Amino acid sequence: MSYQIEFRHIKYFLAVAEDLHFRKAAERLYISQPGLSRQIKQMEDDLGVSLFERHNRKVILTKAGEYLKTELSLNVKRLEHTFYHAKLLNDGKKGDLKFGYVGSAMQEIIPSLLVAFKKEHPDVIFNLKEMDNHKQIEGLLSYDLDLGFVRLDRVPKELEIKPILKEHFCLVLPHDHKLNKENFKGLYQLREEPFILFDPKYSATYFEKVMQIFDDSGFPPIVSHNTIHASSIYKLVESNFGVSIVPKSLIDRNNKQIKFIELTKIKQKTTLSMVWNRHNRNPILHSVFDFILKPAGK
After folding, report:
1. Which one of 1, 26, 63, 68 has the fewest beta carbons within 10 angstroms of its own beta carbon?
2. Where is each HTH lysR-type domain found (predicted)?
């Protein structure tokens, strides 16, 4: 079977599939509406399928159209990345790596990683963005991200996940709180205090693990605030709105208004994992894997 589909047909189809409106898509593509309609009709005739149901006031994707939209969107993005990396190589760069990360990974892990990796690979461009776990997964599936650092136990089957750091939780208290490392016995001492926690939308699995800590301590927490930023947690704790629990990697040693107590005697720990799309063909990605996962001292 021979198809006469050209790249422009794919671009035109995706524009209409996204807008579900021929006039709006034509304006965005800077072509006439009749011309766009002809190109789509030509594509449908050549494929032998109907891509859209056309009604007086709306356009609807057929099942074949929905399938093509999903698959072509991903493949076009891969092709754009291929062209982009070819241009980088032409310009003397080894590649571009797009990182997503949860805030706790930026305290020590990512900065030390980037500094060390940059020494070995000075011609790599890095793009970094703090994102919650869910947004990172979306970005990895759509190829908008190359590598993510998340606090998740499971990821979609298209992705690979590798734990890189398992750490204790820490209590966060105002600097003048009566509890300290010497007189702290257990979380039950804080059963009457309000807690400021990471929003469950930030990571449902992380939130569930924190709830297990309270279950094992024998009381449900009084949650006064939920937030997605550690800086917001610390400001609220400073202002005596409550106490909190965070991963050890989020300890802020420069903030004298709060103090931390590491929870070394509880069974729960939190894991930071590296996650990526197994189909990602970014040429620099495996160099990063080798660098991060190589044994210390080598």
Report:
1. 1
2. 5-62
